[in-house]
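Hi R.,

As promised, here are both runs. First protein below:
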Amino acid sequence: MKRLWVLLGAGLLPLLAEAGPAINVGVVYDYLDGDKSTYLKRVFNGGDSTAFVKINIHEIIYDADGRPTELPVKSLADSSARDGLMASPARLIVPVNGMQGTRLLFMGERERERYFRVRFVPVVPEKEDEFAVSVEERDAYQQTLAAGVNVLAGYGTIFFVRPKDARFNTQIDERPGQYALRNDGNTVVVVDDLKDCAVSDENDCQPVTKTHVLPGRTFRFEKQAGRQYRFKLVEGAAQKNVEVKG
C-alpha cells in the first residue's frame, strides 16, 4: 500500500486493493502566488482500471498555538460563490495510464495568507456522485472490481494561497548551540531538504526534513559540535543554500 507522509497533517486516505485505479497527484505542496487566481492540478492513473476521483476541499485555520482545524469553505456574503478555494471540475474520470486536470480557483478575501486541504479520493461511482456515466457503465465497473479485494488510495495535499501583497522577511538568529529562523513576512517560507550530518562521516546523517514556516512563526534547532546542517531556504521563487556548523 502506498504511503505518503505530509507535514501540517496531510496524508494518505486508505479506503480497501490489490487491483484497480492507482492515482498520483504529483507534488504534495502547491502554492498560489499573489498575482494568480487559478492553478492547474493534474491527476495521473497508473492502475489497471478507470479512476473516478472526487475532490474535496477544506480550509485550514491555525489557532494561536499553531494547532490546525479544518473547516468547510464558506460562501461569500450575498453570493453563491465560495470564499476560498474551489475545484472545477470537482469530479474526474481518469482512464488507465491517462491524466486529467482540475483547475483550482481562488475567490474571496486575500489580505492574509490562507491554507487549504485538497483531497483527491477515488470512489466506486454511485448515482448521487454525479459522474457522467450511465447506470450500465456504473454496474459494469462495480462488477470489474468485485472480482477481488481492492484498495482505493486517495491523497491529501496542502494548498497555500499567498496574500495579494506577498512579502518575504526572514530573520536569522544564530547563537552558540542554537540556530533560529523567524518568518517576519506575511507568507510562508520553506526550510527544504534539511540535512543534519557528522562532519567526519557524511554517512552519519539524520533523516532529511522539510518544514514550512508560517508568518510570525520561528523554526529552530539545536546545534551540536562536530555536526553540520545544510538546507535550502525557499522564499517563493527564490532559493538560497544555507550551511550551519555546530
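And here is the second one, sequence first, then its C-alpha cells:
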Amino acid sequence: MNILGIGSRINHSEFGLGVVTNVTSKHYWVTFIKDGLETIDIDSDFEVIEAVEDEVDTISFYEVEKSLKTILQKWSDVTQISPIADRWKKGTLILRPADSNLADKEIPIDTFFHKIVMVRDRIRVMEQKINASKTLVDQDKIDLQQYITRIYGSLTTFNVLFKVKSDHFVGERSK
C-alpha cells in the first residue's frame, strides 16, 4: 500500500471530494469540499482521483511538537502547563493582617497559582539534577531526596488549586 502524499485528491464515500493536507502514521487529514477538514484512517475506503507521489514523513508536526515539549520538560526548567481548578479562575487571594489599621493585600489567584507551579517545577528540576549527579554519593542523594519529599509534603495545602489530581504535591505516605 502506497501512502498518498500531501496534495493528493480523493473521493470518499461519506465526505465526497477532498484533498490530503497532512499525513500521520495512521491518518490522512483531508479537506473536503462540503464538510471541511476531516481525519480519516489511512486504510479507509476511498477512490484516489490523483495521487501525489511525494516523500511523506509519516510523523505530523503535532507529534514532533509533542515530543519536543516532553524532552524540554524533562531536561530543562520549562514550566509544565498545569490548569487551575475552575472554581478559582479569576478569583482573588486576600491577605488580611490582624491589625485593622493595616491594608489588605489582594493577589489574583491565577498569579499566585502560577508561582506555586513554578516552585513545583523548579523542585522537580532540582530533584532530577540530584539524581543525575555524578559527584554526589548515593547516601547524599537519598538524604536530599528525603528533604525534597518533605518539601512536597509541606506544599500539599495548595493541591486544592490544581484542576488535575496528577499535578498535586505528594509528600511522605504512611506505610
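A quick note on the second one: The beta strands are 9-12, 16-23, 27-32, 36-41, 46-50, 92-95, 105-108. Let me know what you think.

Best,
J.
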